[in-house]
Structure formats: C-alpha cells, structure tokens
Amino acid sequence: SDFAQASKAAVVVTKGATTSGVNFLLPRAGRIAGRVTGDGGAAVAGVYLNASGWAYGNNAYGWGSVDSQGNYVMTGLTPGTYDVSVSAWNSDYMPAQKTAVAVVAGSTATVNFSLSKGGSVAGQIMDEGGTPVPNAWVSLSGPGWGCGNSGADGR
What we know:
Layout: E1 30-37, E2 48-55, E3 58-65, E4 71-77, E5 80-87, E6 96-103, E7 108-110, E8 113-114, E9 137-141, E10 145-149
Parallel strand pairs: 1-7, 1-8
Antiparallel strand pairs: 1-4, 2-3, 2-5, 5-6, 9-10
C-alpha cells in the first residue's frame, strides 16, 4: 500500500447506534526491501522478516516473507526508524537483525541480509524408564535460539 496504518483510541460504540466522525488521515507510507542470501550468495527462500520501530509517536511494525529468489518487500510502513529482523525457521541459518533503518514516505529503504549458518544440538528425549518420548517440545536459548519437536524415536 502507498499509505501507512492509522488507528483511533477510545471510540465509543453504542448498540443500535451509528458512531459518526471516526475519520482518518493516512500518512504516505515507505517501504523496506532487499535480498536474503546465505552461503556463497545463494538465495535463502521461505524465511520471514519483521520490522518494528517508533513512528509518529507510536509503535510501528511491518512483516514480509522471502520469495524463491531471496527477495522481499515490506510495504505500508509509517515513516520512522525501524529495526529489521530475519528468522530462518527450520533451517541451519541463524537469525539476523539490522537496526536504525530510516523509512521515508514514498521511498524504499534497501536492507540486505547475508545469513550465517549456526551449529546444532542433537540428542534423545526419554522418560525415567528409558523409553523414547515422541513429539516432545525442545527449545534452546543463548546468543541464538532454536526449537523443534522430537521424532517417534525421541530424537
């Protein structure tokens, strides 16, 4: 969209009545676009991005996904400053973030990401009797993070 989001607080709605005068002045929007690559510059498809920031005195946000060529575009962003994050779920790539991205009305800010592969953790989930526990939720946190479920064999 060429326009940014807007909202109104404390609008009183009465059952059976029409609340009038709830009008909006939509500011022109900006965009964030770029490319997400991994090892050797190859496109990393199927990852998700989000942008969060402060614009016009309000929290502002946007989101997008990456196409098969590694390209993305987030539209309808309220002009302001954003932090842009990319998460490559179900892959070996680590999340990444760029901060203080300036979004200007009617313009596109270019933010490219080159993702690095991280390590992995492997093991088996078992109950007290040594029986594998299938479909157990496992999460890992630290400088990076990850999550997943164990398989039928507890791995």
